[in-house]
Amino acid sequence: MTELSFFHTPRSVAVIGASDNPDKIGGRPIRYMTTLGYTGAVYPVNPSRPTIQGLPAFGSVEDLPEVPDVVVVGVPGQAAVDAVTTCAELGVRGCVVMSSGFGEIPDPDGRRRQQEMVAAARRTGMRLVGPNTQGLASFGSGAVLGFSTMFTEAPPADGPVAVVSQSGAMCSVPYGALRRRGIGVRYAHATGNDADVGAAELAAAVVADPEVRLLVLYLEDIRDPASVERLAEIAARRGVPVVALSGGRSAGGQRAAASHTGALANETRVVDAFFERLGIWRARGSADLTAAAELYLQGAATPRERSDSSGLAIVSNSGAICVLAADAAADRGLDLATFSPATRERLDVALPAFAATANPVDVTAALMTDSSLFGKVLPAIGADPGVDACVVGIPVAGRGYDVAAIAADVAAFARGGDVPVAVAIAQPEIGELFRRAGLAVFDDENAAVTALAQVTRHRAAAGAAAGRAPLSARRYAGPTDTLDEARSLATLVGLGIECVPVTRCVDVRTAVAAFEALGGSPVVVKGCTAAITHKSDMGLVRLGLADAGAVSAAAADVLDIMAYNGITDGSVLVAPMLSGALEVMVGAHLDPVFGPVVVLGAGGTAVEVAPDVQVLLPPFTAEEARAAVGSLQIAPLLGPVRGSAAADLDAWVDMAVRLGDEMVRPGSRMVSADANPVLLRRGEGAGAVAVDAVVLVERGARS
After folding, report:
1. What's the average model confidence in pLDDT over 95-114?
2. CA dihedral 156, 162, 166, 171 (to 10 degrees)
3. Are 12 and 66 a contacting pair, CB within 8 Å?
């Protein structure tokens, strides 16, 4: 990763296509730099004017008194390409190309011009941001190398947040939201087409700044996961949380129609797993990018260790808010903390006899006559080892309340501990007083609980991500061969995965013999061919056959169907009929962008209609796979049910780990594997067995 600090603190900047009108695109960078404290040299380049916005203008970049560190390009088409080429030849360190009409449009000439521009930059090592970029803004230095209108609508102020986005709009939106709430933004960067410098690379550069304490990131797509990994590594090392919004579209995300896993591990699920693995919080919309910003910046950067009894504490001067906040916590899967006896004793001393001292804590309207109640209650709650977050609800205050004293007490509590505090205040004017005290204030208890849930879970995910191995670099985009079911099952057995024993039969006689060898127990007869993977759709699966006549008829029928469909090398499989277990699935495939992916979830035919799956990116541990199982909708069914034992999750998890290990193994030729259904038995050590499988391998690979 190249050093990019010259974009943030350039000694000199030239603007090609500079305008005397400060509201035009070519005029805004000059206006911003001359009014926002930039101390370097600014060189307008425009051959038609002697001065621009009071500065001497130059006819070309070659006429400048020095080679500038950075050049902002605001001329269109081929003129932009020529400008970039000239800058590269002169030794300019970086160009920011605001002009559009390049790789972002479905025009071969536009793509050609962009490629020509990038090639010119790379010949000399010059770095290029854009084209089609709104530009870069570094408010710590005043170097505003762009044209965003938002900087006039929401005046800049340096601060602890960095915003980096491929999209100009999705740079301006979170920037504006933060500034309207009084939060300073140190960087507001939009990278446009990412033809050279990508958003993740630029984000890694800004997150290394010791003044940055929160990164807001928007990615149109993820072309280079390794660059996001590097960003996450730097952010984790500095303890900077990263909140990201991404469309999650990996090019060519569906590997093959034969692979259930390719469809189940859709791009959104894979990006979720990717961000989770890196400790990045994935926002679900633009508002989510900044919804919890104040909490992230509050200062409780190192959360206390969680225990089984850890949870949320709720304190309010309203019983109704206590109830509603508890409901909101339940909706978001947050447990309420159970106070220790010592905490209850301290609360009994601090509060009136009629106040509720269990969690939630209702200090009642006594707050009006005793403004110190929060100052007494909150330290007691914060000292409780079972409390890992706190909501303070103040629905009514104002005349008759010492609001300043209350705000000071809550702020002191928030600053002094390792428990994040969200304050819910419905009255805007009262909320503003608490904001000025440095508190994270929300309009209602629902928003406060939602933000706390995000921050606490994000911190837990970031902690879990620490020390994880980097993602596998294994990729494959070539042709594949589909193994028939017998070979697919044998491949899984070779990995140590238990599979139903099958006998391949070439005709009716051998099928009957296979049935008789199983002692007359009910069997399954299936067509076996690599040409058809969804066999039940063609009537190639017959279940519960209990006599030789039924086996003979089924085998003959299945062979006839395959022959009718032009399958000349088809055979039949005879396998014991297994039942009485939960149907689950496990699969793996190579995503063209993210590499090896493992999926596990509910199995059977319902997987295509209403998928209930979780995605993991290997390598992963058995504990991580078990946690993924716990997030499934079917998770409650896996425990003891009406006297029956819990399902043998260890056996299922072991399958997932083995598949993941194979997908990242150097020399592996496996491209995709589906085991569905897997019959998951109940009882410790009862095991799990795959009864159907499809494996895809690299073309020509032996199995």
Report:
1. 93
2. -30
3. yes
